[in-house]
UniProtKB/TrEMBL annotation:
InterPro entries: OMP_efflux (IPR003423), TolC-like (IPR051906). It comes from Sphingobacterium allocomposti. This is Outer membrane protein TolC. GO terms for cellular component: cell outer membrane; efflux pump complex. Residues 1-20 form the signal peptide. It holds the Pfam family OEP.
Length: 434
């Protein structure tokens, strides 16, 4: 009996199994994902594009400078009749012209539309930053969720390893009792069947863990064959407060920030449309050189160089009421953006309230299942001692053994669900810590 109690302490109360792979912490997993994940890298590139587009030149605020070169040559048989009746003819008459120079054009006023466009480009850059933030939050949430799912399944696998060890001890005890005539052969066979069942369950559970690790490696965008082990403890933040969550969500939730930004973009679109009501003023200038040669004509050679400059102004007087139509549509888009803000705020608040209620329930279940696991451990210890001295049957011991494994499974599941509820809430408020 002393040997049985010592064995129980080893397999039940000490950590399950030795690990040979490298430890991967949840913080390291998130850092690898932030570095490698393809969705995050694509969002970063989208943000870089938005930054490159946010320039004065792209908004039309800077002048354009163009260099021009044009040369034309011709060889023709020419015949001319002048006003005084004189006729002139020349075969293979050559005509050459050369023009080159630099010109500049600059829109100095377009009804303030250029300023609206520049501000819109800046807002689009902010939009890219918020979309990157949302992608980062989503990816971090996925990594943490998958990581702690592996923790749950790995802990269950370790429990099954202990369960197999207990079943092997049961088989050894049954064989000893059979050898001294205190048990029938049927009992030994039943225990052997139970052991085989435990080994089969362990194989299926090991496959589940391997597949989950492959999924996590894929999410981290690294070699799928990398093996690792995870932390066996799940730390749950039990200090979340509903009112504080709502306040932080109103300030940091990326979806709310994106909707508010969309309204600002709609306002800038209206500002840009209204700019068409005002005149557009464009100045131009340049320095040009021209030269021409003609074998037949009044001027044999000509050269010219110098400055050119001018001002162009245009005003839309009537365009079939399109200006008024475009302004009305822009105002409707602003109203829609305001409605979307209220709609998104309600959706976020609803999601937080639902997730918070689930969080509270899972926290209570986690505490309950932790107590149940302790009770199941004690029950297994007492049952093993009784089975060793033959005071209970193998069936009764098997019930206690299964109750113990089920208690561990429920406890792991409850802790995982509590952690996932916590992660979901922090993702909704836009602030995930790990």
């Amino acid at each position: 009996m002393k040997r049985a109690i010592t064995f129980l302490f080893i397999v039940v109360f000490l950590p399950f199994g030795a690990q040979s792979q490298e430890l991967l912490t949840v913080k390291e997993a998130v850092e690898i994902a932030l570095e490698n994940n393809y969705s995050i890298r694509l969002s970063k590139n989208d943000l870089l594009v938005a930054k490159e587009n946010s320039t004065y030149g792209n908004a039309g605020m800077l002048p354009s400078v163009t260099a021009n070169l044009n040369q034309n040559n011709s060889v023709q048989n020419s015949h001319q009749v002048q006003n005084n009746g004189e006729q002139r003819s020349l075969d293979n008459a050559k005509n050459n012209s050369l023009n080159y120079g630099v010109s500049i054009g600059w829109t100095v006023f377009d009804g303030m539309g250029m300023f609206a466009r520049y501000e819109r480009l800046q807002e689009l850059e902010k939009q890219g930053g918020l979309q990157l933030k949302r992608m980062v939050l989503t990816t971090i949430g996925d990594v943490i969720t998958l990581y702690y799912t592996i923790v749950e399944q790995q802990n269950l696998l370790s429990a099954l390893d202990s369960n197999i060890a207990i079943s092997r001890e049961r088989l050894r005890t049954a064989e000893n009792r059979f050898s001294i005539g205190k048990a029938a052969r049927l009992e030994v066979l039943n225990v052997q069947v139970n052991l085989n069942e435990d080994i089969s369950g362990r194989l299926r559970q090991a496959e589940t863990v391997r597949n989950l690790k492959t999924e996590l490696n894929s999410l981290l965008a690294r070699n799928l064959d990398i093996d690792f082990y995870v932390e066996d403890d799940v730390h749950i933040d039990d200090g979340l407060i509903y009112a504080d969550l709502l306040d932080r969500a109103s300030r940091f939730n990326p979806d709310l920030q994106l909707i508010a930004l969309n309204k600002r973009l709609a306002e800038l679109d209206l500002k840009n449309v209204r700019a068409s009501r005002y005149p557009t003023v464009r100045v131009s200038g340049g320095y040009n050189f021209s030269r021409s040669e003609s074998s037949l004509g009044f001027v044999a050679h000509s050269n010219a160089r110098g400055l050119t400059y001018g001002v162009t102004a245009s005003l839309n007087i009537f365009d079939g009421f399109n200006q008024r139509r475009n302004e009305r549509i822009a105002k409707i888009q602003i109203d829609n953006a305001s409605l979307q803000i209220e709609q998104q705020r309600l959706l976020v608040e609803t999601a937080i309230k639902t997730a918070y209620e689930t969080y509270l329930t899972n926290m209570e279940l986690s505490k309950l299942e932790e107590r149940n696991e302790d009770i199941a451990r004690q029950n297994l210890e007492i049952t093993l001692a009784k089975y060793t001295i033959g005071s209970i049957s193998s069936v009764e011991f098997r019930d206690a053994q299964e109750n113990f494994i089920n208690a561990i499974s429920r406890n792991n599941s409850a802790r995982l669900q509590a952690k996932l509820s916590e992660v979901q809430l922090k993702e909704l408020i836009g602030q995930i810590d790990f």
